[in-house]
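Lab notes, practical 5.
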Amino acid sequence: MLSSGIPAISSLLGTAGASGDHSTGAPSSAEASSFLSLVDSALRGVSTDQNDAAAAQSRFVTGAPGATLGQALVASDRAEVGWNATVAVRNEIVAAYQSIMSMQF
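Output from the prediction step:
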């Protein structure tokens, strides 16, 4: 009974081919690679913002010409927002993983 309903559901979802093949739902290597490159570039951006903030603060503290408190604060805030967003995304991924792991099949 159950196995006869799966192809019908799969065809509604577009996961079954014309020959009756069922997709595993796993991402293709191109999709996985694109996701990993997106995560990598986002983490590199956050790291760059943190390094820029440290450099701006250092320039201000040492009295470098043209360095202002405003520049240091803006760079620090940008780094903080990036870090908070990174932590929020990580928390959502962990919650999704835990939700999937608690499912019973």
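Observations recorded by the TA: Residues 1-22 have pLDDT under 50 and may be disordered. Residues 27-101 form one domain.
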